[in-house]
Amino acid sequence: MPRPKKPIKSKIKHRPFLKWAGGKFRLTDEINKAFPKKKQCLVEPFVGAGAVFLNTHFERYILADINPDLINLFNLVKENVEGYIEACKPLFDAPNANTPEYYYAKRQQFNKSTDPFERSVIFLYLNRFGFNGLCRYNSKNEFNVPFGAYKTHYFPENELRYFAHKAQSAVFFCGDFQETFELADTTSVIYCDPPYAPLHQHTNFTGYAGNDFGLTHQRTLAEAAKKIQKEKQIPVLISNHDTKFTREIYKGAKFKAVKVQRSISQNAAKRVKVKELIAIFKA
Q1: pLDDT of 144 over the 50 cut
Q2: Which amino acids are annotated as binding site for S-adenosyl-L-methionine, given as ranges?
Q3: 3-class SS at 251?
Q4: Rounded distance, CA 217 to CA 60, Å?
Q5: Which of 140, 144, 187, 209 is the most buried (most CB within 10 A)?
Q6: Which positions make up the binding site?
Q7: Structural domains of the chain sorted by starting position, each given as residue range(s) with its CATH number in brackets
Q8: Mapping DSSP to helix (H, G, I), strand (E, B) and coil, where does residue 273 land?
């Protein structure tokens, strides 16, 4: 009689509750392989929607972003996810929720509001109904992402609860990468997911929470990563486009090249695989 087959262990991957342009959900397996086996503290200066955080198993996390709306949102979900879910559902359930009129009214309400809880609730609606998970502000610090015009929508209730559960081992911090680097200690691993360097270097702009993150910032980040790796003798990983420019500024790192499906376009035919680079600085 043949032996019964062993059950195949499924690796469950957890999606963030936010859509996020440039998010690393598809790359988490490769990033995990690059992390050291001993996992105490993960420091992320560009946490974004938190895909790497949600799919790693460190004892503790220091997660930062320059966007105060994002960090306020994460702290609210961490502290009271059920209250947050209850407040968000009416926006998603409104009969005209998926219309440009409703969307632009809520965007205007968000931009006029100074209440952190109200802004956090509307932020989720704008994120899920806006265009392709973009998070963009104008020079007046007003959220200006257009309506997404999607046929269907999904309220990420389970994803919110998992994030809140995982967040109990995390500290969320609003600051830039240089401030965040200072919070790392000798038990830390730093993972940086900066705004992508342009594929063609004649373009010198990338949106960074409403601010510029150009080639000078990319170089500054690379130098800061090399410096803190040497000072604290800890691994520092950076993911970016795989270009001549990124290979030049990350010189001295171990390179891991992968291809990732790009999903910034609504048109599936235009979602091509792009070369991505993981630069690993370690002793």
Answers
A1: yes
A2: 20, 24, 65, 193
A3: coil
A4: 28
A5: 209
A6: 20, 24, 65, 193
A7: 1-66+175-283 (3.40.50.150), 69-167 (1.10.1020.10)
A8: strand
Q: How far apart are CA 24 and CA 238, in angstroms?
A: 12
Strands (DSSP E) along the chain, which ranges?
A: 41-44, 60-65, 170-174, 188-192, 207-208, 211-212, 236-241, 254-261, 273-281
Calpha distance 132→228 (Å, rounded): 34
Terminal alpha carbon distance of the chain = 53
**pLDDT tens digits, residue range 32-48?**
999 998 889 999 999 99
**The two structure tokens encoding residue 131:** 């265009």
Q: What is the DSSP string of 141-207?
A: S-B-PPB---S-----HHHHHHHHHHGGGEEEEE--HHHHHTT--TTEEEEE-PSPPPSSTT----E
Token look-up 């830390």 returns: 188
Residues 6+ apart with CB under 8 A from 9: none
Q: Say if residue 117 is exposed, middle or buried (CB neighbours under 10 Å; 0-12, 13-18, 19+).
A: middle
- In the three-class reduction of DSSP (H, G, I as helix; E, B as strand; rest coil), residue 90 is classed as helix
**Token code pair at residue 211:** 């601010």
Residues written for the chain: 283
- The pLDDT tens digits for 177-190 are 999 999 999 999 99
What is the C-alpha separation between 130 and 183, in angstroms, rounded? Answer: 34
Contact between residue 189 and residue 232 where contact means Cβ atoms under 8 Å apart: no
Separation between Cα atoms, residue 94 and residue 269, nearest integer Å: 32
Global pTM reads: 0.88
